[in-house]
């Protein structure tokens, strides 16, 4: 991995960037571009969400500066972009995440924004737009690709279905169900009654029009909420 910089630059002058993508060629391409932009500095990379979180924890333990912005792929093995974004937003709220997506992943984009992403870019975006999105995220703003934003807006205006129909707690319940937790385990983990956990699970299955916990697990894997089993 790229070594973190020492942090000599005046805050605000250089934006520290991390790239998380399971394709090495994408990471190399982004690094090559970032290296040409004076206000950006790539300090690290990871091949999946688990590696990214581990790297952040290591830097924090060593007292090294964390990235200001992470460019995060959505579909990766072990831990996808949505789950990683949620974990990073919870553990490192000062680190902003801009997700990298393809045009057909609007459902995952919605999930990523709900998980705390500060914007998203299409993978075929022009290089200058990458810098624009990174600068916007570092400034506490949200960058939305206009084409995907229009499609996302149309979906949000329509009656919510699928993952978009779930509350934040129900999304959390879905992830736990997909990981194989029983109602009792869910209740213990979330400090709620088993009856409440059972109600939440029932609501999730009903909203997603699923008939079993196995179907819920498969949907969570397909939508990138949890990694596919190796």
Automatic annotation (TrEMBL):
The modification 4-aspartylphosphate is found at residue 73. Keywords: DNA-binding, Phosphoprotein. PROSITE patterns: HTH_LUXR_2 (PS50043), RESPONSE_REGULATORY (PS50110). Gene3D superfamilies: 3.40.50.2300. The keyword Transport does not apply. Signal peptide: none annotated. Residues 16-138 form the Response regulatory domain. InterPro entries: CheY-like_superfamily, NreC/VraR/RcsB-like_REC, Sig_transdc_resp-reg_C-effctor, Sig_transdc_resp-reg_receiver, Tscrpt_reg_LuxR_C, WalR-like. Residues 159-224 form the HTH luxR-type domain. PANTHER family: TWO-COMPONENT RESPONSE REGULATOR. This is Response regulator transcription factor.
